[in-house]
Amino acid sequence: MDEITILITILGMSAVTLLFKSAPLALLGNRRLPRVVEDALKHLPVAVLSGMVVQLIMTDEGQLAIDPSAVTLWAALPTLLVAALTRNLFWTIGVGMGFVAAVRLILG
Amino acid sequence: MSMRSESGFAVWVREVARGIGVISPVLMVYTAIGMAYGVLAVDNGIPVWLAVLMSALVYAGTAQLVGVQMIALNLPPVSIIITAAVINARFFVMASALLPYLRRFNWWQRTLYATQLTDATFALHIARLPHRNASTTEIYTTNIVGHVVWVGASTAGAIVGQTAGNLDAFAIDFAMPAMFIGLLVPLIRDRGQLLVALGAAAATIGFHALGAAFWTILLATAVGLAIGLGADRWTR
Lengths: 108, 236
Hints:
The structure holds 2 protein chains of 2 kinds. Chain A is mainly alpha-helical.
């Protein structure tokens, strides 16, 4: 792909992304959303983050790929444990990545 | 007069420090993933300046990683843009959820906020803003520092990546899952929310198995929200 085509692609990706990011905040302003929507959105952080964790560790290139030999699948367990015990983002990321790095180092 | 301006400055410094404190754990992940993205981009034949431009403007890890691979495959720009739109449509829902907590901002402040919205800043702010009155300085510092580190790491990765690079080196491929687990778990405070998390997780596997591909997160999130509404009714 030549530079101009890549540039156009990136500008297009930016336009759609910025549209989604900014539309509610720029357009809705101080209007209130319907009650049921506000109630549903209270659950958004848990729903979307949970889905993304599963997507990250159980899929590859948009396809389901649950690989029992993947360190990154099993590493979710100690990471969840540390997150539940400490509720601290630093510790969770540190222990999670440390676990994966350590297992890879040991198993070669 | 000078006392007053000094204390104003001291307050500003404190709020900036708070803003950095809020985003600091995420910066490790942004550095790791940003560099990995930069490496991947130049590996796939994207010029450094365009790789950096994408980080500055798109500022969304998953869409960028998928995007550079689709560019490398010479897929039509329209299909790449549509894929980015599908992957990033979740930001529309996230921005809507933040709306009640950003009412004191005027429209351009909200728009500026929106351009720097990511999964991580959404999760950090949705956990923080309802419970404490965070200052405007703190909120923007969190956003700006995250954005700058992301672009900086992408630039570094793109420059370094011209020599060598492996996405799985150390544990970079687990940086994002670890961050999302760390952001998710503290938000689960009752049985209803646990149900939402498990339901969305199961739905993600289910929709992927059905071949929903990049639509999966939107669909699974909808299932999670429905479960949440149901749990609210049940326990009320």
